[in-house]
Amino acid sequence: MTKMKIRNSIIAVSVLVVCVAVCVGVLFYAQANSGYPVFVYRFNTRTNRLEPERRMIPYAMQDEMVQSVINQLRMTPRNSNLRQAIPADLVIEEVRIRWDGVMEIDFPAAYNDMLPYEEGLFRASLVQTMTQLPFINIEGVYILVEGEGLLDPFGEPLGILTNERVLISPDIMPQMMSQRTLTLYFVSSGIDGLIPEKRTLLVPTFAVETAIIQELIAGPQQDGSIATIPQETRVHGVRTGGGICSINLTDEFISNFQGSQTLAELTLQSIIRSVMANDSTITSIQFLIDSQYRDNFNGVPYFDTLFLREDIERDEAG
Question: Same domain for 96 and 157?
Fold first, then answer.
């Protein structure tokens, strides 16, 4: 091979290397500007399922990219059928990735202001999203409120939530919402009995009893009935098992209640009959206030005992 051919070959190779370098540089520049693709999971109100939405986050250190993903959960979805996963004004105190692959995320007390089913949907969205990130291996999510591990409505620790566990949890099911026609009982305006009212609603399949109580708090939609549960009352949670429905309410149910003992008795009956009317498997109901039993409600004794279906039905028949 002549010197001329060798020199031409060297020039050709050099040009090829430069072209490759330029192309690679352009590719990296384009990626850096378009970001890194991730999927955030949100609840689809049309299909009643968690569904992924493709989003782009900027390239950065892992911790910063994790924070970017969490911020994407706050963003308004592009699909109008998808609902925002986390309240836009909810502050996050700290996010940590532990050595064992668990992400700890700490919220202020305002976390508890979410309604039970909203909080459940958020947990499902968060866990599904974070445990499937392509740039970091997160095995599970541990949620804290004010530095303490998140508890269920009855004071039991939720612990580390994994992708598998959050789907089979009684709080989160793949089919989350259904349309139900509920029978609600409100106190008559004459405070001499209960008046039934039919109401068709889209309710969480895992929290029908919670939805019933929230509707009772909201009050009747027809004339002749009155709202008796204090509007400030919130539902900590409702647990049903073995035929027993445990209803855990905030202290406002007692402290803000206004009315006679008779009105208090009718208020309890309105809750009991409303819950039992919509679930034939419930044979008894018990009440808790801030996760504690109380022995008296506005003069009504035995508030800490079980209210049995057979007693309710016997009283109705009598």
Answer: yes
The full DSSP string for the chain is --HHHHHHHHHHHHHHHHHHHHHHHHHHHHHHHH-EEEEEEEEETTTTEEEEEEEEE----HHHHHHHHHHHHHSPPSSTTEE-SS-TT----EEEE-TTSEEEEEE-GGGGGS-HHHHHHHHHHHHHHHTT-SSS---EEEEEETTEE-B-TTS-B---B-HHHHHHSTT--SS-EEEEEEEEEEEETTSSSEEEEEEEEEEETT-HHHHHHHHHHH--SSTTEE--S-TT--EEEEEEETTEEEEEE-THHHHT--S-HHHHHHHHHHHHHHHHHT-TT--EEEEEETTB--SEETTEE-TTS-EEHHHHHHHHH-
What dihedral do alpha carbons 306, 310, 311, 315 form, nearest 10°?
150
Average pLDDT of the segment spanning 77-86: 79
Q: Are residues 100 and 199 in the same domain?
A: no
- Give 200-218 pLDDT, tens digit per residue: 887 766 678 888 998 999 9
Answering whether pTM is above 0.85, one says no
Residue 91 within any structural domain of the chain? yes
Domain range for 50: 38-168
CA distance 258 to 254: 9
207 in the same domain as 250: yes
Does 190 lie in the same domain as 98? Answer: no
pLDDT per position as a tens digit, 120-163: 888 888 998 999 898 899 999 999 999 999 887 667 788 898 87
Same domain as 203, residue 133 = no
Whether residue 67 is contained in a domain is answered as yes
The pLDDT score that the predictor gives to residue 191 is 94
User: Does residue 78 lie within any of the structural domains?
Assistant: yes
In this structure, the answer to whether residues 71 and 96 fall within a common structural domain is yes
N- to C-terminal Cα separation, the chain: 115
